Every structure is written in C-alpha cells, then in structure tokens.
Amino acid sequence: MSTMQCDVVSVKESLYSGTVTMLIAKGAGGELGIMPGHAPLVTLLKPGAIRVLLENGTEELIYVSGGVLEVQPHVVTVLADTAVRADNLDEAAILEERKKLRAYTLKKKTTPKQKFVRNEHIVALEHLLSKEKIYLDSKLTLETVARKLNLSTSHLSRILKAELQTNFTEYLNSYRIKEAKDYLQNPEFSKYTIVAVGLEAGFNSKSAFFHVFKKTTGQTPLEFKKEHLRS
C-alpha cells in the first residue's frame, strides 16, 4: 500500500507527523482526498475535520479552524491556524452521536435468529439480545447474563458450545458487529465517527472494535463503510 509523509501543525504545536495512505480535508473549492502521487497543490482550508487515514486502517481526526494545505507528490502538509486532536475534544460530540444511534436502535424491530434450537435457555438468551439488546452494554459479563437466566456460568458456557458451537464472547460480539454494520451502512450516520459507532454497538474501546470487526469481516470499519454505505 502506497503511503506519503503527512505533517499537521498549528502555531502552537505539531498535531501529527507520520506516514499515511490518505488525507481528507475541506478546501476552498470543496472536499479534497489526497493520496500518494497527488499533483502539487496549495489551497486554503475551511474550518472542520481533517481525516488522516493510517496504514492499519484506522484514522486520526484533527479539527482545524482554517489554514493552508500544501501537497507535494509524497508529502502533504497542513499549516493550521488552530487545531486540536479529536481525542482531546470534549466528549459531548461523541455522546450526542451515541444518543442518536441508541434512539435509532431502540426503534428497530429485531427478529431473533432462527436456528431451530429447542433449548429454553438459548431462547431466553436470544430474547435478551434481540429484544432487550443487552449486548449494547459494554460492561456485560458472562456472570451477569448467567444470573439473568438463573444458570451458573459454566452451565451457560456449555449450552452455548453444545447448541451454537460458540462461546459467550464470540456470540455477544456477533450481535455487536451486526449492529455496527447497520450503523455504517446507514446514510443517516455517514458523518458519525467510527469511535461513536463502535462504542454504541457495545464495544468498550476503539481498539477492541477495530480488532473484532477486522477479524469478523476481513475489513476495517472504514473499508466496510466505503463499500457498503447505502446511497
């Protein structure tokens, strides 16, 4: 995969310096997608988010109040008036996105998976997941679910293995990945951050979300979004 050097600096500090596969920013003439080998360019930047895509499929978000973008074939430089990493922003924005995602989820009618299982405990578990959506709780544990089902943790684990050929974590994450896919494909949430999507789907961190999503789908969340976003 081709990369280029990227430097994002403000008057006060350097916000990012390293290799990237792409940089997306709002220029004076509209949105720009800068990739390695791009023709030389100098343009003013509009206030907003700069997305820096890394080799591992993750992205960095940096918000600028304006500035200048300079592009050379293998180097892209952002000289911002003021800038701040998304990680350092008030969490209110992500929380607001999560509220809207949660409202959307609660409105959906979810049909439990049809596996023709007869075990009453699996039926009860699928009700908790499909109807009550307990998988959205990032702190959910095997012990908590077993207690809801009046089972021991070992008994629940054995049932999952025997009936569904899976374990508790994998089964829980299958619901979370399905939820995240739904968010990523929905144009209503196309501007939402990947972090908000992962956390609201039930994962407890960005890294955990990226790891499980890539392992399950073979794509990063961003790659999946680009390919499947409904128009």
Protein described:
The structure is a single chain. This protein has a domain at 4-88: F0F1 ATP synthase delta/epsilon subunit, N-terminal (ATP Synthase, domain 1, Sandwich), CATH 2.60.15. The chain has eight helices and ten strands. The chain starts with a strand and ends with a helix. The chain is an alpha+beta fold and 231 residues long. The model has no long low-confidence stretch (mean pLDDT 89). The strands form two sheets. The chain has a five-stranded mixed beta sheet, with no helix packed on it. A five-stranded antiparallel beta sheet has the order 4-3-6-7-10, with no helix packed on it. The longest helix has 18 residues, at 168-185. Strand 1 (4-9) and strand 2 (14-20) form a beta hairpin. It has helices at 92-107, 120-130, 142-148, 153-164, 168-185, 194-200, 206-217, 221-228, and strands spanning 4-9, 14-20, 22-27, 30-34, 41-45, 48-53, 59-64, 67-72, 75-80, 83-85. 39% of the residues lie in helices and 24% in strands.
List keywords for this structure.
231 residues, alpha+beta, ATP Synthase, domain 1, 5-stranded mixed beta sheet, 5-stranded antiparallel beta sheet, 10 strands
How would you concisely characterize the structure shown here?
The chain contains 8 helices and 10 strands. With 231 residues, it is of the alpha+beta class.
The separation of the N and C termini measures: 28 Å
By CATH, the superfamily of the domain at 4-88 comes out as F0F1 ATP synthase delta/epsilon subunit, N-terminal
Return the CATH architecture of the domain at 4-88.
Sandwich
Overall 3D geometry? Answer: elongated
Number of helical stretches of at least 4 residues? 8
State which percent range the strand residues make up: 15-25%
Classify the oligomer. single chain
Q: Output the CATH class name of the domain at 4-88.
A: Mainly Beta
Return the CATH topology of the domain at 4-88. ATP Synthase, domain 1
Please outline the major beta sheet. Answer: 5 strands, mixed
- The helix-and-strand class reads alpha+beta
Strand order of the largest sheet: 2-1-9-8-5
Number of strands: 10
Order of helices and strands, N to C? EEEEEEEEEEHHHHHHHH
* Percent range of helical residues: 25-40%
